[in-house]
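To: structure desk
From: M.T.
Subject: fold request, one chain
Message: Could you run this one when you get a chance? Sequence is below, nothing fancy, just the single chain.
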Amino acid sequence: MRDFIKLLALILLITVSCKDSNKPKEGVTKKKKPNIVLIYADDLGYADLGSYGATGVRTPAIDHLANNGLKLTDAHCSAATCSPSRYSLLTGSYAFRNNAAVLPGDAPLLIDPQKGTLPSMLQKAGYKTAVVGKWHLGLGRGDVDWNGAIKPGPLEVGFDYSFIIPATGDRVPCVFVENHHVVGLDKEDPITVSYGKPIGNDPTGMSNPEGLKQGADRQHSETIVNGISRIGYMSGGNTARWKDEDFADILTDKAKNFISENKKDPFFLFFSFHDIHVPRIPHPRFVGASEMGPRGDAIVQMDWCTGQIMNTLKEHGLDENTLVIFTSDNGPVLDDGYVDQSVEKIGKHNPSGPFRGGKYSAYESGTRVPTIVYWPKQVKPQESKALLTQVDLYMSLAQLVGQNVGANDAPDSFNHLDAWLGKNKTGRTTMLEEAYTIALREGNWKYIHPAEEGYSTWVEDVKNIESGLSLEEQLYNLSEDIGEQINLSKEYPERVQKMKAKIAKIQQEGTRPGLTD
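Reply: Done. Structure tokens follow.
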């Protein structure tokens, strides 16, 4: 009997030991969902990076991502200007569905807080979310009180933390907004903003051009802040006004702090550059870092910021479990309102590469932007010609994190995760491109819808960019004519009608189940 009891005790001990050995050890948890860092440049052209053929400027940090990740050669933002493109990225909806256009600095919030967004979807999947940098999607409900709580804004559409430039660097108010409040505001010196009539006693670019660091056109010649005249008028808030040269350090530090503070949880960081948007005023340590003047120096500064983010991920041991996507909000522009030698010092560099057009344009350079996906051990170093659009990041990332999307959310977004990760090279079969008209890609065929009667030629006249606007239909075969020089619309009338009908169908339906990609 004694031997039996000993044997029973031994069996029990072995059983308990086996159970204990299957338990996670102290401090060991299941592998968490990947962190996601979306690095979003502004006005960066397809060929503005070394890895995409740039000359006169070096971009080693971003090139490292391209050389060790997925370099996409036919990836697009959804629109040829910034506010519409950012709207589509965050909502999974084409900008025309909300009449989204480039916004003034005092515009109300463009995104409906009741609608699902990319960050709110990731919040539901357990992510901490942040936006740091340029916003330009509106704030409040109109008539913003810059001296109180500024909402709704990023926090109301899915971000846990925000530190933003409210609109653009060339628009007032020239202050940072952290979460709901202007940073460093003296309540005794309240901010007033006007996009109509002049206010306050601050000098303007028209009245005091001798106080400018850079000359500017009439549109950019209103209130002077930090030696730069802006679009719009601003008075007050002197202690809160930014210094353009500090953008890189301040914004990068905020992004690094968010990573450090959330390293134990899965996080989504939308790091939205001001560079290389005008005014191009890089920090003194980057002045002269390129052969192209301030625009090239701003590219070098942007590359440094990217390197800082990557170093921070590595320092915290997060680099192998972080999906990094680097891309741009629209194509390139040289002279965009300020006298910064962008045209004079361009040299042999062509920001658009082999493509026609640029920012504002319906041609390929309006939306075909450098796009890199970097995720060690998950994304193999390669180049892909997959046709992709940023509007699909919503559904693709939902698939990645295993999160369902509401039937009324992201109406134009499709799951192409495998193409975004380089597992296949098919991507989209059909893709819409928005500019001041609408274009459609079907494989290598490109159709541009005619512009309305009386369309403006200001893009050509003022920005020196081929807009793609015409009163005639345009059809191009990109496999033979990458520069969109030979209009084939009269040779292929049936294809024109088919593609025109496809655009009409997309415009009318507006719900994911009824659409094809």
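Reply (cont.): The first helix runs from residue 2 to 21. Let me know if you need anything else for the meeting.
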